[in-house]
Automatic annotation (TrEMBL):
InterPro entries: Aldose_1-epimerase, Aldose_1/G6P_1-epimerase, Gal_mutarotase_sf_dom, Galactose_mutarotase-like, GH-type_carb-bd. PANTHER family: ALDOSE 1-EPIMERASE, ALDOSE-1-EPIMERASE. The keyword Transport does not apply. Residues 1-23 form the signal peptide. This is Aldose 1-epimerase. One of its GO terms (molecular function) is aldose 1-epimerase activity. It is an enzyme of class 5 (isomerase). The active site is at residues 188, 319. Pathway: Carbohydrate metabolism; hexose metabolism. GO terms for biological process: galactose catabolic process via UDP-galactose, Leloir pathway; glucose metabolic process. Belongs to the aldose epimerase family. It comes from the Eukaryota. Pfam families: Aldose_epim (PF01263).
Length: 354
């Protein structure tokens, strides 16, 4: 936890000494680079375009799925690398009631809303507030009252930042200006630690620090129950390959895990992923209560970077988040943020290779 406290201090310092401050609405690509670790991002959807890491022998590979051009991201239906919101995941019936008023949202998955609607935060141009290629980039966006049906103006920001030699931090914030509103942002990167072009992820070993899930109906909407994973195919408390019990599921993993808290820690470990051929290992910490584990079951056939064709199960998403459809489940942790309050969502990745 001392390192996490050091991280928080580092974040505050970085915001104070940001070298570049601007308000650009042009679409660009911004690279962060530290040694042989580099990340490229675009302000279209505040999207992760590439993450390049060495394997155990020093060979570099891009370990996230994506596209070669920004134009491809504009036509994307996969949410490759994007920040999704105002409310990530699904909202049943594309509606909810807040303070006695019913809000009707814009559905984009049948009668439900997914990842903020037809034009959520993944499909807008964010402003570049600050950028230092050696340390960080911060994107900001003003979401207007009534956007996709949500109440109130909301100022949102996302900072991607290097920490130490092998850590990537994502900090997401939301500040309502005039009305209470739900806020639940998520980072939607598709990871393949063997390299984005290496095929399916069945041999990836995964550990999830969660002993419960929120089960869903046939529309992937939570039923409201919280059930233990022990003895089910959803049990990743001990690290094992994704393929171990994959055949017991109808189409793959796409479920919200209830993360375990230890004491009063602000940050808690959410996941470990290991790929044996490359030796790459990714660890993830967060301050959020949930994690959506998704094995790209509905990816289909997509032409990606370098002409590579991606197929179902070629990447995994580990989306730390509030619980899906929490606005319609009062027993779930609330996602309502009031004016004067600030929503904060941290993700800390650590990458190693042995």
């Amino acid at each position: 936890m001392a390192k996490i406290r050091e991280l928080c201090c580092f974040l505050l310092l970085a915001f104070a000494i940001a070298k570049v401050s601007e308000a650009s609405s042009e679409i660009g690509v911004y690279e962060l680079k530290r040694g042989n670790f580099s990340v490229k991002l675009t302000n279209y959807g505040a999207t992760v375009v590439s993450v390049i890491l060495p394997d155990r022998n020093g060979k570099l590979d891009d370990v996230v799925l994506g596209f070669d051009s920004v134009e491809d991201y504009k036509n994307d239906t996969t949410y490759f690398g994007a920040i999704v919101g105002r409310v990530a995941n699904r909202i049943k019936g594309a509606q909810f009631t807040l303070n006695g008023k019913k809000y009707k949202l814009v559905p984009n998955e049948g009668k439900n809303m997914l990842h903020g609607g037809p034009k959520g935060f993944s499909d807008v141009i964010w402003h570049v507030q600050s950028y230092d290629k050696n340390s960080h980039v911060t994107f900001v966006y003003h979401s207007f009252d009534g956007e996709e049906g949500f109440p109130g103006d909301l100022h949102v920001s996302v900072t991607y930042m290097f920490f130490q030699t092998n850590k990537l931090v994502i900090k997401m914030t939301g500040r309502p200006l005039n009305k209470a509103t739900p806020v639940n942002l998520a980072s939607h990167s598709y990871w393949n630690l063997g390299g984005h072009s290496s095929g399916d992820v069945f041999s990836h070993q995964v550990q999830l620090f969660a002993d419960k899930i929120t089960p869903v109906d046939d529309e992937l909407i939570p039923t409201g129950k919280i059930l233990p994973v022990e003895g089910t195919p959803y049990d990743f408390l001990n690290i094992h390959e994704i393929k171990t019990r994959f055949h017991e599921l109808p189409s793959g993993y796409d479920i919200n895990y209830v993360l375990n808290y230890v004491g009063n820690e602000h940050f808690h470990k959410a996941a470990v992923v290991y790929e044996s051929k490359s030796g790459r290992k990714m660890e993830l910490w967060t301050n959020q209560p949930g994690l959506q584990f998704y094995t790209s079951n509905m990816l289909g056939t997509v032409k990606g970077k370098g002409g590579v064709t991606y197929n179902n199960y070629d990447g995994i998403c580990l989306e730390t988040q509030g619980f899906p459809d929490a606005v319609n489940h009062p027993d779930f942790p609330s996602q309502i943020v009031n004016p004067g309050e600030i929503y904060e969502h941290f993700m800390v990745y650590r990458f190693t290779a042995k």
